[in-house]
Amino acid sequence: MAKPFEVTDATFEEEIINSDKPAVVDFWAVWCGPCKMIAPIMEDFAIDYEGKVKIAKLDVDNNPNIAVKFGIRSIPTVLFFKGGKVVDQIIGALPKSKFEEKIKELV
Q: Cis link prior to 4 (omega < 30° from 0)?
């Protein structure tokens, strides 16, 4: 069963920027309540879009360099990547349908 995978400052470029598939990255932290609210949504997408879209999580406390590089000031922030570039973003805990709309635009 697919799950969102963890990316780090060290693996981000290889896994997300250089990926041949679109990617969704959930910037989160352990202490963040709204992050916990969207975690099951990301888990569903990892299953639903397995092999089509990479669903990843990046812990901003343990990986500050990538968070700073992309200007993450509020979490959860979800960035949508295609061809190594950010094509969209969602800030905050929104309904599953809002995230799904953005993912469908990637595929």
A: no
Q: Domains plus CATH for the chain? A: 5-106 (3.40.30.10)
Q: Is the dihedral of CA 20, 48, 67, 65 positive or negative?
A: negative
Q: Mind listing the pLDDT tens digit for each residue in 68-104?
A: 999 999 999 999 999 999 999 999 999 999 999 999 9
Choosing from 7, 16, 24, 35, which is the catalytic residue? Answer: 35
**How far, in Å, CA of 12 to CA of 64, rounded?**
12
Can you spell out the DSSP letters for 30-83?
TT-HHHHHHHHHHHHHHHHTTTTSEEEEEETTT-HHHHHHTT--SSSEEEEEET
Catalytic residue check, 32: yes
Cβ(44)–Cβ(53) below 8 Å: no
> 81: which strand partners?
23, 86
For the chain, the residue count is 107
The secondary structure element, H or E, covering residue 102 is helix 96-106
